[in-house]
Amino acid sequence: MHSPVDILLKQLIHFEKGNATAIYIQISQQIINAIQRSYLTEGTALPGSRKLGELLSINRNTVVAVYEELASQGWVEILPNKGTFVLKPEQKTAIIKATTQGLEKLRDYPNTTGFPFQSSFNLASTGEHSISKYVINDGQPDLRLHPTHQFSRWYSASMKRATLISKWNQTNEQSATTFNLHLSNYLNATRGFHIKSHNIMSTRSTEMSLYIVSQLLVKQGDVVIVGNLSHYKSNMIFQQAGANIITIPVDEHGIDVDYIRTHFTKRSIRCVYVCAHRDYPTTATLNAERRLKLLQLAKHYEFAIIEDDFDYDFQFDGSAMLAMASSDAHGVVIYLGKLGQSFFPSFQVGFVVAPENFINEAKNYLQILDKQGDLIQKQMLTELISEGEIHRLIKKNITVYKQRRDYLCQLLSMHFKELAQWEIPAGGLAIWLRFEPRISLVEFAKKAKELDLFLPKTILYQNKNICAIRLGFGHLNEADMEIVIEKLKSAYNAVIRKA
């Protein structure tokens, strides 16, 4: 006759011999789960090693390894000549992942809540999964260009700094941190600003920056003006804040500022969202005349300008046009930027530049979301700025990306010269490719996917006036580009034949 404990263990324990996890680990994890769920109570005597081996059809030495593993973690006590008994460790909330499904099936975790909550249509994910070998994005950097070994050394050196521990032990961020000081000096030198460390707030990303700004600026029903084609993530954030988004025309000179003057009145607008250098997605640059008009209009109409400088690091031809924030004498511009686009994504940092009173209020939101931030990241970026290393990395990558832009345009001229139109952008990692005559972009993406090339829906723009894609090239080397453009041409021909 088997004891109740023997029967219970035989029912609960399942293991897979072909699993990468050792059998004794699989079994010990499931016994731990049984103890956590109170199936095995404190003081329960477990079967002897020979008996449990027979129950589970495993070697006795494997059972010995199971009990030793449980004892080392404090789940059982092994008493010589007496047996193995269940304990309850002091850390009763320990979470152990079981590698098999035996225990979990006894108590399935609910798929739906037993209470109502507010879901958000505005924040529905735009991500799409694809197993295609080749992918086109909206203009992301190439991770292969990042100096892996150098970053490992820099990160390791930053972790060893004696000052790091003291910074971690601080209960409140200092009013002017070393990082903010270096970042403000860097922006003053590179972007024509005249800011102090109290005019800047660093965040994890541009999206986090915009989210905090929108929480401060936008109330339910407030009018936010964007271009008639604009960044989908920014629109999602504004909509979630309750904004009434109104689109205005965009041409080759950027958004139509005169349209704002003729269609809106004073204090009817909460803010206008613009891109500092290249409009998203069209890559058109807001010219100097319109910038001046927009600054004057913001002062007169009393609205804020959110200036998103998402691709400052990728200027190829000439000098980048100075941001409106650099000539803002009336405190109407909130500048969003990103530092470290030549680095791995985890080393990039977003920031907000604005008048001191706005930054102070924004930091109240930030301390809830991300009180301390990544201190090692800030330490490393501080040193890269002060040593000038960041300038070297940016210049090195700009040379590569400019060559890729030029080669892509050559390939487009070979394959799409009579089929599409585009301008060579002075910077950025994407080209605005407009098809003429028009085709079905949905069908185009479908045919491309059949050729192992994925075009996400977020780069496709089609309505009664537009048929275009935002063709990102930064992540593609020349060999990749040749294959991608050939696949695009084959997909295009397939769409035309079907039509």
UniProtKB/TrEMBL annotation:
Cross-referenced PROSITE patterns: HTH_GNTR (PS50949)
Tagged with keyword Transcription: yes
Pfam families per record: Aminotran_1_2 (PF00155), GntR (PF00392)
InterPro entries documented for this protein: Aminotransferase_I/II_large, HTH_trans_reg/aminotransferase, PyrdxlP-dep_Trfase, PyrdxlP-dep_Trfase_major, Tscrpt_reg_HTH_GntR, WH-like_DNA-bd_sf, WH_DNA-bd_sf
SUPFAM superfamilies documented for this protein: PLP-dependent transferases, Winged helix' DNA-binding domain
Membrane spanning residue stretches: none
CDD domains membership: AAT_like, WHTH_GntR
Keywords linked to the UniProt accession: Aminotransferase, DNA-binding, Pyridoxal phosphate, Transcription, Transcription regulation, Transferase
Molecular function GO labels: DNA binding; DNA-binding transcription factor activity; pyridoxal phosphate binding; transaminase activity
Keyword Transcription regulation applies: yes
Family: In the C-terminal section; belongs to the class-I pyridoxal-phosphate-dependent aminotransferase family.
PANTHER family xrefs: HTH-TYPE TRANSCRIPTIONAL REGULATORY PROTEIN GABR
Protein name: PLP-dependent aminotransferase family protein
Species per Swiss-Prot/TrEMBL record: Bizionia myxarmorum
